[in-house]
Structure formats: structure tokens, C-alpha cells
Amino acid sequence: TFFKKKNLQLVDEMRLFLITTLLLAIPSVSAFTYQNVTWTPLNETSTDSFKDLISRFSTARDYGSVGYTEAQRFIEEWFTDLNMTFIRQTFDTFNDSITGTNLIGVLPGEMSANATHRFYLVGAHYDTMKDNPGVTDNGSGMSAVLEIARLLNLLAFYNCSMEYSILFVGFDMSQPVPDFGEEPPCPLAAGIGPCGVFAFVDWLKDYLKQQNNAELVGTFILDSILNYNTSLNSQILSDNARILLPDYYAGVSSSGYKGDYIAGVVRAADLTLAKTFQESWVTKPLNELYQFRQVDLVGEADPDPNVHIQLPIFFQSEHMQLWAENYTTMLVTDTLNERGLQQMCADKTCDTLENISEDNYQFGYQTARAVADSIFKLGNGNCFTNVTTPTTAASALFPSLFTFMLVHFVGFVLLLL
């Protein structure tokens, strides 16, 4: 009788123990913390994809050439393979036989259906002068646009999101069309800057209206970003730069006129883009020797026309028409033919893969990453993940599901004794 009562008492105590254990252990198994993780585009360090993209833009892409047609096909495939909305925008020129083509990829953000829909834009021209392979100018810029699209498409993989939408644009007609004069065949009504961007801005206004009167809040234009040169006196600076851009001039001259930096060309209205880009540039750099230099131009809106003439290198890309329309825009450039080999090879046949070093690739890729990370920050990007780190003291008793099951099995055996 004594042992029977003792066994019954033991069974009751074991049942109570198991019930208590179950109640304590369940939270330890099911509790999740919903916390920020550290992934950003800056976590991506391999240049493999960027190198492959550069190789795709290493043959001449003048109007009507095989390289021109292949570049258009590849850009379209890249955007569609990333499951982005693809738009082919064609536009007329002053010559009835010449039609330009801008290529646009759209990555929708979380706010795409809202009344406060906003866009960022990343763009580069993909065409070249006749017979010019155009690896640096501007295969590097177009490759960066596509690589930025790939990086920002990783958001879903890392359980991230971004509120704002992105437009990725390959601009046409930045360069002259062979046999049709020394200037691109812009429409007669074209404003400042290359033809393709003029036609794009006209299209953009209608497009934004169709998107619940959305707003374009910032643009990065990439025009030649591969030329990195640490040699003394590899960077050209004019007397006009000394007079009109004293801070920029002082920085470059104090380094021994090295072409070891990417330039961010902005007006006062564009300073937020430059500030964010610089923060991204110095965070997790591929090489701490790569420099960023801000080029501050005069004026809240369109800079003084005299500055255009005196500093032509900073006033010949797609950003000009966007500035003219008062869109916040930053030109990202290695300064093209004011640096190193490009002094000889800009718009010539020697702008080839053979002249690109590993440093050049890394420099260009760091630029692409910094733009991607800037857009991620400015576009209110955020990443979350479910982590099985316990949030209750019960986890100290049962740190894993295996331990939980083992205790219950032992308890069950004891009940059978």
C-alpha cells in the first residue's frame, strides 16, 4: 500500500512537472525577435558580376552598329530577367531616318500604390562614338546602372524592402551618329544636354502623372567611373577650376594631382545626394585609398551659363537637362578625358578592356555599390528577419527543440515504471 501510494504520488508529481515544463518550453521554441539586420548593398564585395557586365559593353556601340543593337538587347534582357517592368521609349530626331531608343527598367517600391509615390533614378548613356569600344566611356556607367539594379533586386532575398520606386535608364543619342554631323541629331526643340535625356524628361513628366502624380526626388547620372590613377600629375585641372572651384582644386592639387577619386558634381540643391553618397563611399570600402571629391557648382538651380563654358567637363552629360528641369541630380564621374589614359583614349579606339586593371574594376564597383547603398538609404530601405533567439527565461531550460523532446521522452518512460 505504501509503495502504491508513493507511485501514485510520483505519477502526479511527474504529470505536474511535464505540464509545467511544456508551458515553459513552448515560448522558448516559438519565441522570435523581429529585429533589424545589417545587410546593405555594401555587404556585396565580389566584382565578378560587374566585370562580366563591363565585358558586355566592350565593343563599339555607335548608332546602327551590331554592338549598338546587341547592347539594347542585353539591357532589355537584364531588366526582364530581374522581373522588372521594361519600357522601350523611342523618340524622333531631326532626321527622319534616325530614331533614338531609351531603355527603362522599373523596380516598384512599397509605396508604389500610394498617393505619396516617389521615385529615384539611376541612368547612364550606352552609345559610343564610331569605332570606339567605349569601355570606360560609357560602358562603365551603363554596367554600373545594371549592377545597381541587380544589387537592389537582392532586397527580397534578404527579406528587405524599400518604400520608394527606382527607374533605371540607358540613354541613347549621347554621341554623334556616324555620317550625320558632329553633334547628336537632337530634335529641334531640344534643350541642354544630350538628345536621349531630353526625350526622356519629356516622357517622364507624363509617366509620373500616370503614377498617381508621383515625384522624382533624386537622380544619379553615371558617366565614366572606371578610370582610377594614383600617378602624380595624372589629373588635369584648368585655371578655371582653380578660380571657380577653389575647394575642389585645393584638394586635388594637395594630393599631387592624382586621379585617385570619383567626383560628385552637385549644386546646392543636390547636397543631400552628395552627403549620402559620401557616407556610403567611406563605409566598408573595397580600398580605403579610393577617394571621393565633391564638386560644388554655383547656383540653387541651373548654374551660371558662363560656368558651362569654363568647366565643360562637368556640363556635358545627362544631368544637365535634369538640372534644367529642377530635378535633384548628382553627376558621378571620374572626369573622363581629364585623367590618365583617357586624355588620349576618350572617344578613341584605345578605350578597351586591355587597359583596365583590377584596381579599375574595384574602383568602378565601389562606385556602383555606393550609389546602390545611397538609394537604399534615401528610399527608406529596411531589412528584417525572424531570429530564433529566445526572448524569455524559459530558454535557459530548453535551448533547443531536441532538448525539449528528450525531457518529455524521459518523463514518459518514468510514467511506465
What does this structure look like?
The chain is α/β, with parallel strands linked by helices and about 425 residues long. The protein has helices at about 1-30, 50-55, 65-80, 135-150, 195-210, 240-245, 245-255, 270-280, 305-310, 320-325, 340-345, 360-380, 400-415, and strands at about 35, 85-90, 100-105, 120-125, 160, 165-170, 215-220, 260-265, 290-295, 330-335, 380-385. The protein has an eight-stranded mixed sheet, with helices on both faces. It has a three-stranded antiparallel sheet with strand order 1-11-5. α8 (about 270-280) links the parallel β8 and β9 (about 290-295). α1 (about 1-30) packs antiparallel against α13 (about 400-415) and α2 packs across α4. The longest helix is centred in the N-terminal third of the chain and has 29 residues, at about 1-30. The radius of gyration is 29 Å and the shape is globular. The model is unreliable at about 1-10, about 20-35 and about 385-405 (pLDDT under 50).
How is this structure best summarized?
The protein has about 425 residues and is an alpha/beta fold.
Any chance you could write out the topology, listing elements then pairs?
Blueprint: H1 2-30, E1 33-36, H2 48-56, H3 66-81, E2 85-92, E3 99-107, E4 118-125, H4 135-152, E5 160-162, E6 165-171, H5 195-210, E7 215-222, H6 239-244, H7 246-254, E8 261-266, H8 271-282, E9 291-296, H9 305-310, H10 319-324, E10 329-333, H11 342-345, H12 358-378, E11 381-387, H13 401-416
Parallel strand pairs: 4-6, 4-7, 7-10, 8-9
Antiparallel strand pairs: 1-11, 2-3, 3-6, 5-11, 8-10
